[in-house]
Amino acid sequence: MKTFLRILAGLVLVGVIALLAFIFVPVQRTQPATELAADWQPAEGQGKMVLDAGDCVACHTSDEGKSLAGGRAVASPMGTIWSTNITPDDDTGIGTWSYADFRAAMIDGVAPNGTHLYPAMPYENYRLMTEEDMRALYDYLMTEVEPVSEPNKETALPFPFNQRWGIRAWKWLALTHDAGFAPAGASDAQDRGQYLVESLGHCGACHTPRNAFMAQDGVTAAEDSFLTGGVVGGWNAPALRGDAAGIKDWTVSELADYLATGRNAHSAANGEMSLVIEHSLQKLPDSDNIAIAAYLKGMDGDAVDLPETLAAAGPTATPEAEADDAGADTAEMLVSADPGMPLGARLYSDNCLGCHFASGKGAPGIFPELQGNSLVVGSEVSPLISVILNGAELPATEKRPMTLRMQGYADRLSDDEIAELATWLRGAWGNDAGPVAAADVADVRSGDSTH
Amino acid sequence: MARTEPKKDVVIVGLGWTGSIAGIELAQEGLDIVALERGHDQSTVPDFQYPQQIDELKYGVRLKMMQKPSQQTLTVRRSGDETALPYRSLGSFLPGNGVGGAGTHWNGLNWRPMPEELRLRSYVAENWGEDIIPEGMNLGDYPVSYDELEPFFTRFEKVAGISGKAGNLNGEIQEGGNPFEGWRSEEFPMPPHRATWDSQKFGEAASAMGYHPFTASAGIASTSYTNPYGMQMGPCNFCGFCERFGCYQYSKSSPQTAILGALKQYPNFEYRTNSEVLKVETAADGKTATGVTYWDEAAQEEVFQPADIVILSSYQLNNVHLMLLSGIGGPVYDPVTGDGVLGKNYAYQMNGGVSLFFEDEHFNPFVGHGANGIALDDFAINQNDFGALGFIGGSYWRSGTFNGQPIRNMPLPSGTPSWGAGWKEGIGRWYGHAMSIGSHGSHMAYANNHLDLDPTYTDRHGRPLMRMTFNWQDNDLRMNQYMKSKMEPLAASMNPDSMQSGFKDVGAQYDVRPYQTTHNTGGHSMSETAREGSVNRYSQAWDKHNVFVMGAGNFVQNTQYNPTGLVGGLAYHTVNAIRTQYLSNPRPLV
């Protein structure tokens, strides 16, 4: 018995020591695969491009705050995480960080004082950055950005998520992939697209499902779940590959238009994606948006044609599409204007048809297609309800400077009517998604929903 | 003076079509620009949004989008013998208000003038001799030709997003277009609209009589459209709420759909709303303007905005008023002596039409748009034999539903009671069974139609109101009667159950109460020399070379068409001159 207790005490002691070591022994920083010469200089504009492609501004800037001075609330399933000041201010920003410190934060998710960063910071993806881009970004932040004195807000998640050492354990499960980028080699453009998608653009942070540990279920194209769709804050980040992908019928050119302008012949960006376009993608060179589009369309082996330009200047006149086979019955019913139509169809005729048309095809570049629209048929219904209630706004972009707004119908349609309308939309023109309940509408209207 | 703002390169007075054009083209030059807009800001959503916009009482009857007479108005009289009284209740014409100006609430009828209309005096002289010009008519040539303006018409049509079918491409007559129009260097940027039933019937009847019908050009999108600035329009759904309304569908050509979003992207451009310009200030030597003084409604104070270039781009009436108040644009015109230029050549439009009633036809008048229809130019200015006909002028005809709004669009056969059970029965019987054909005619300039300052009435800032002296003249009334004599047989050939005409006849007096048209033109007309007009061929004030004046006030006489196409073409012509000639060496360009 005594022996057993001794062994047990010994094991506890070892466990405690191990735990203490786990908490307090600093993480080994991942070393770069290639060391750049000390006098290495980034190309003109490279740092700004990395900043834009990485969309740093979107998270590290609050609505009213100075650029990159942090303070934006980032919603997570565990609670609110406050983004930090990454201007080169010595006291409140990253002014005292060495390049190695910066690199460790980007690749290992560890701050200079050893604090583990919450994975709201997508170091799972930035881990794949090239050494050159990392250096260019560091140089840009340190030399081109004005220091702003803006103290960070303390992120205070409830126990156990406030125990940052737990993130170290999480990283054992999540950061299993090597640092650095491995191009698939389909073509130069597709390799560039792959790099932007996997790494800087951190597309997988939203568009890849999360596993049981809340880690991205794959961070490179080689993994089957990569970019097969996720759910973020009650919104579907649609699948970008496979049969379920809303973009499967888009051309490379159409997809590139969407990335650069938030709109194309089929759809209009919404929710978080419109912020990505406003703050990041519209600022990239055309060749990068074309590269991303080419990579996404070709990631499972399909041949792709590369357009030379995107969202060309007008004048361009594009007629709206007629209903296709899947949508013909719905279109015919709407055009018949039969008073015996279901309530949802009548509500559509009165409120939506003027822009989205009987075909459900909308109008290219301006009124989104509702047939097969990922927002209409998504697993999450609150975004569709939100758009009907509150409308939507597509921000001005450089090549398409028109701010396009859809008005909301909160003051015109009841919860029951919106549920009828949304349910009908999810089954019209061959759409095949489940019904929406009036209670769901009430939740979104009252703000109780996640969105 | 309560406040002086930092100096700008350019100050733009009025942010409608021409102010927006000047803003974006000069912003591209990197100039530091401020636009001052008397009215409020407005955008498609929320200001024009569905369904709130579809409110005929609020917008169609109570004129929510228009200038309020208490805000700004003018006095009107028909001759020098009358005492002008303030236009206190909007009727005959409806100046707009707010960002986008009249470009937000127009019908979208975009036409180019005929080449002959821009050199009308010479055209008349060459063909019939100057002797046929009636006493008292100020018939003139524009100091700029159709050929010179053609690239700028094309540019404006691309920006504004105009649909239609060319009838004359570089001199080649095109099937389906207007064979009598001036040459076009390119096809329209959007295809023509589909025809409604009334316009189809009209087109068939016109063809049967040997006329040349074509689909009217429209500042209404027939497809999705992206313009050269990347701005966008959505295809029209024929809801019929165009004139007096903002378009909720992004379908109507307007500064909002064509320019403003792109303009706002320029960091060197800013605009201030609720800022009414009171006066253009001039330098001590009188040769240039130094900027403008405006009323800041929010701060309730006067502000001086210095600038190197002043662009007057408010509505024609307001431009002329501002020039009268500021001493810009030459000496004020005196109808007695014929001396002076500012306020001269005020002109309007001479319109008429026939209504046709068909018991067995269903026209669905609620399906349409403001520029809908089949038109013809067989009685246009370049088709009429002025010497034989006894007038100078012409008109284009058009038939097409434009709205089925219940308060203002219930045409009934004459003799139907105007109230009570008989009226109700008439509505039940005839709603949707009427169509119309309109004649949209030219209006010349005359010695006794003019604008000056009123001696009695003042506005809320204490400034004299502008005074309009205007009446119909026999020449244009004869033209109108000629159109009646030609249109009635065409209408009769369509075999309506009944029909009735509305064409003013010789002797008609101008009545400012019923709505007629907001095509007020002239007053700071352009001219070959400073002796004849207020601005030169580049719309540059003859007397202040850094003042450029946009809009229909430049017209020498009005054309037979809606003025927007010419206004847009002149605006691009002017900004091109500023960009290519003036900025590098500011001076009188003529």
Which terms would index this structure?
heterodimer, A: 451 residues, mainly alpha, Cytochrome Bc1 Complex, Chain D, domain 2, 7 strands, globular, B: 590 residues, alpha/beta, FAD/NAD(P)-binding domain, six-stranded antiparallel β-sheet, 20% strand, FAD/NAD-bd_sf (chain B), flavin adenine dinucleotide binding (chain B)
Walkthrough of the structure:
The complex is a heterodimer of chains A (451) and B (590). Chain A has 451 residues and is mostly helical. Chain A is 39% helix and 5% strand. In chain A, a hairpin with a 2-residue loop joins strand 3 and strand 4 (235-237). With 590 residues, chain B is α/β, with parallel strands linked by helices. Helices cover 23% and strands 20% of the residues of chain B. Chain B has 14 helices and 24 strands. The mean pLDDT of chain B is 97. Strand 5 (316-318) of chain A pairs antiparallel with strand 9 (224-226) of chain B. Chain A: Heme c 1 binds at residues 56, 59-60. Chain A: Residues 42-145, 188-300, 339-429 form the Cytochrome c domain.
Domain count of chain B: the total is 1
Global geometry of chain B: globular
Distance between the termini of chain B: 35 Å
Q: DSSP strand (E) fraction of chain B?
A: 15-25%
| Global Rg of chain A | 25 Å
Percent helix of chain B, as a range, is: 10-25%
Q: Oligomeric status of the shown chains?
A: heterodimer
Q: What is the gyration radius of chain B calculated from CA atoms? A: 23 Å
Give the biggest beta sheet of chain A: 2 strands, antiparallel
Q: What's the number of extended β-strand segments of chain A?
A: 7
Structural class of chain B: alpha/beta
Can you identify the CATH class of chain B?
Answer: Alpha Beta
Overall geometric form of chain A:
globular
The SS-based structural class of chain A is: mainly alpha
Q: Name the CATH superfamily classification of chain B.
A: FAD/NAD(P)-binding domain
- Which percent range describes the beta-strand content of chain A? 5-15%
Low-confidence stretches of chain B: none
GO molecular function (chain B): flavin adenine dinucleotide binding; oxidoreductase activity, acting on CH-OH group of donors
Protein name (chain B): GMC family oxidoreductase
Pfam family, one (chain B): GMC_oxred_N
Keywords (chain B): FAD, Flavoprotein, Oxidoreductase
